[in-house]
Specification:
Elements lengths: L1 H11 L4 H12 L7 H15 L4 H26 L10 H16 L1 H8 L3 H13 L4 H29 L4 H62 L1
Length: about 230
């Protein structure tokens, strides 16, 4: 274990780590398999035991990567739409895009902010925001807030795990990563529940509208012959 911790210390002490994190976060904005959250959390957890990398620089680089990546995804949606590439037409992505569309229509700021914490969710929401004509300036401002809060939150998870397992960089990193994954799953679950509730509300509203329209149509249908007879 000491050998592993020494290796971790040598890796995280290199000056290029924060910039690798920034690049990983940027790519993760439109390619979810890249584990950007895990890198940010692991770096913060290791910093508790090792003293490196600099946490302010980690937050800054992670936030910048998130902001640039999210805006690139927004631009892709604005430029090519939601059908151009094969991965956009996959069943899971189509479901995510449809859910994102409903969410943005009802609660744009909430969905754009929350999506940053969900790997596939943020891709779908940012693509839909771009394709639907969401104001670029407003999206940019929201992406700044989302990127900074997400980076700070990820570092905070790593710090908590690192302090709980102080002196063991490896376990601190693993616990921090597990905590980050769990929090992402919780946010994803909450967003799914909100989307389903929104869909049910829309369906109920549509049915109510149809029921209200039916008597009016019936009244017009019965009154028209009487008018003809009167003439």
């Amino acid at each position: 274990m000491d050998t592993v911790n020494a290796f971790i210390a040598s890796v995280v002490s290199t000056p290029w780590v924060p910039f690798v994190i920034a690049l990983a976060v940027l790519v993760d904005a439109f390619f979810p398999p890249v584990p950007s959250e895990s890198l940010v959390i692991a770096a913060a957890a290791a910093a508790v035991s090792v003293g490196q990398p600099d946490l302010v620089l980690v937050v800054l680089c992670a936030a910048v990567g998130a902001i640039i990546g999210d805006n690139l995804t927004f631009t892709i949606g604005r430029s090519v739409g939601l059908e151009r590439f094969a991965w956009m037409r996959r069943r899971r992505m189509r479901a995510a895009l449809n859910s994102a569309g409903r969410g943005i229509a009802r609660r744009p700021a909430v969905f754009l902010m929350s999506a940053r914490y969900i790997p596939v969710g943020r891709v779908a929401v940012n693509l839909v925001a771009g394709a639907s004509g969401f104001p670029r300036r407003k999206f940019f401002l929201l992406s700044i807030v989302a990127g900074v809060t997400w980076a700070s939150y990820s570092v905070a998870i790593g710090l908590l795990a690192g302090h709980l397992l102080h002196g063991n960089a490896l376990l601190g990193m693993l616990v921090g990563i597990a905590g980050g994954v769990l929090s992402g799953l919780i946010v994803d679950l909450v967003m799914r529940l909100l989307a389903r509730r929104s869909a049910r509300s829309t369906a109920v509203g549509t049915r109510s509208h149809d029921v209200e329209e039916a008597p009016a149509e019936s009244l017009r249908a019965t009154s028209e012959p009487e008018c003809i007879g009167a003439e």
